[in-house]
Amino acid sequence: MALLEVEDLRVSFPGPGGDATAVHAVNGVSLELEPGRTLAILGESGSGKSVTAQAVMGILDVPPARVAGSVRLRGRELLTLAPKQRDRVSGEEIGMVFQDAMAALNPVFTVGDQLSELLRVRRGMSRSGARRRAVELIDRVHIPAAKDRARDYPHQFSGGMRQRIMIALAIALEPDVLIADEPTTALDVTVQAQVMELIAEIQRDSGMGLLLITHDLGVVAEVADDVAVMYAGRIVERATVEQIFAGPAHPYTEGLLASMPRIDRRDEELYAIPGSPPNPARLPSGCPFHLRCPRADDVCRATLPALEPLPAGRASACHHREELLHVSH
Amino acid sequence: MSATDERVLRVENLVRHFPVKGRLPFTSGGVVKAVDGVSFDLRRGETLGVVGESGCGKSTLARMLVGLERPTSGEVRFGDAVVHAARGRDLRALRRRIQIVLQDPYTSLNPRRTVREILLQPFEIHPDALDRKRRLDRIRELLDLVGLDPSVHLDRYPHQFSGGQRQRIGIARALALQPDVIVCDEPVSALDVSVQAQVVNLLERLQRELGVAYVFIAHDLSVVRHISDRVAVMYLGKLVESGPEATLYDAPAHPYTKALLSAVPVPEPVGRGDRRRILLAGDPPSPVNPPSGCRFRTRCWQATETCATTEPPLAGDERAVACHYPLAA
């Protein structure tokens, strides 16, 4: 039994005209996360990667959002839990780090107060015990002079330091699963490296499973064990990180890899995927990628390809997956 | 590329300080030294990349180059003219020669104007640029040049376009008056990965066809490597290193350049555990109160007494570095 199992997750939001204009953000996502492993969900804006994370975390407003399918933590179904129990699970057993730390932290309380409040409410710790633990946690995320900094407000920290505070909040209750939604996107590259290193270190020590939501292929290559590539609310390819980079089995992944400029060499011209990602309110027929795909044929335009298994435990949702895998090796 | 030895832009010792209000009324809180003595030349038809982290002054530099910001001292020369000394007719003539493409394609286009109106505006400001009767043909040409369809797109509003298409409109607007220099301030950072390559390729093609020179300002080192002939690295308002793209990336001489490059995630999972990464401690210091001597010394692993007392000048010509102890190739 996997630590976290998501099965056929579907999320939609009603449109201005009711069901006919509903936005289908997530259309049948299944994934599994094992303890100590890092699963990256790679996708562009509108691919449904953040909504997937929010549905797993249980922080979508339902209604208006509609969530179907199954999310199981250690075999226990979360989607059918009563709201109170659900909050307890997602607060204590799943931690979450967001992209924008300034928006996620409360600006009118010191970071020490925010951490101790969490510990007192959830763990029933005493005022002084919670305070001590809060300082330990600030120290744990390598913020110098933790005791003094606990008395500072979020705006007194730099972007990278705020991200560390949010990580401290996310790991305070020692969750089994950490969901990080674009944790370093707003940061400078030197600070991004520090924060990713910190997350990896905490993961090594605690053995939690990490669900990393990102659009950055470089970050994926650096930290992920497994990768799920999302496009138009579906997983279009799933493989280990080595498999993906050695030879993608979906034309979208192939295009993403080819369109990325490299720091370690200079290419003459970049491959560019034509067009732009589809609007989730108006998905095309058949394969959602067919309008941008160099391999698209009549089958692709008419029939939606399912995520089918390939050798070596990987999977691809492409009618041409066999030949793609053949070409790239 | 078609770069010649002719200098289209000469930047000499450019400085921009912003006064900061103090905590009490009528007191001064010092000055932010956003740009603090930057010099470089731009050759006709070449691309100079400027990289640096947030707060290093690269956007203030961009705004000064096009005359949107007045320097505290120093000058930007275009041919024989000094950009900030020009007035009236001379200034208008200069503005035709130097144009800008901004980062955010959502806020840099007027939402109440159609593409036709947006592209005709440069000719209304500079009526002598083109005869009234020929303007519509010209903007059709421009749309065609940037890969949009004049018959379909001319009378649409910005919100009807995707981010990548809007950036194409911004580029068409910058090209309208046939400038010699386009300053691109983070032109692809707001775009999806799969769309970035389209815009980068477009900028390169336009340079080949029109011979326009770019100052390409970005924080993404991979994109800058891909597009630039020469690269300058900025830290806290100063250039710390500059040189041809290949030498700077393959053999950085300034410790900051080396650290910056090593922090960029490499999209190659094989061997990621063996990569040597220089993790810089902390964040860049405040530009209100930069460190004495070399500004990088507080984060530099090889700083000595000399670095604290003496500021290293940017020494060298084609390949220049501002460090007392430049790294060997």
UniProtKB/TrEMBL annotation, chain A:
Its main location: membrane. Residues 4-257 form the ABC transporter domain. Gene3D superfamilies: P-loop containing nucleotide triphosphate hydrolases. It holds the Pfam family oligo_HPY. Keywords: ATP-binding, Cell membrane, Membrane, Nucleotide-binding, Transport. It is found in: Cell membrane. It is a peripheral membrane protein. It comes from the Bacteria. GO terms for molecular function: ATP binding. InterPro entries: AAA+_ATPase, ABC_Ni/Peptide_Import, ABC_transporter-like_ATP-bd, ABC_transporter-like_CS, Oligopep_ABC_C, P-loop_NTPase. The keyword Cytoplasm does not apply. Belongs to the ABC transporter superfamily. PANTHER family: DIPEPTIDE TRANSPORT ATP-BINDING PROTEIN DPPD, OLIGOPEPTIDE TRANSPORT ATP-BINDING PROTEIN APPD. This is ABC transporter ATP-binding protein.
From TrEMBL, chain B:
GO terms for molecular function: ATP binding. Residues 9-261 form the ABC transporter domain. The keyword S-adenosyl-L-methionine does not apply. InterPro entries: AAA+_ATPase (IPR003593), ABC_transp_ATP-bind (IPR050319), ABC_transporter-like_ATP-bd (IPR003439), ABC_transporter-like_CS (IPR017871), Oligopep_ABC_C (IPR013563), P-loop_NTPase (IPR027417). Transmembrane segments: none annotated. PANTHER family: D,D-DIPEPTIDE TRANSPORT ATP-BINDING PROTEIN DDPF-RELATED, TRANSPORT ATP-BINDING PROTEIN. This is Dipeptide ABC transporter ATP-binding protein. It comes from Plantactinospora alkalitolerans. The lineage of its organism: Bacteria, Bacillati, Actinomycetota, Actinomycetes, Micromonosporales.
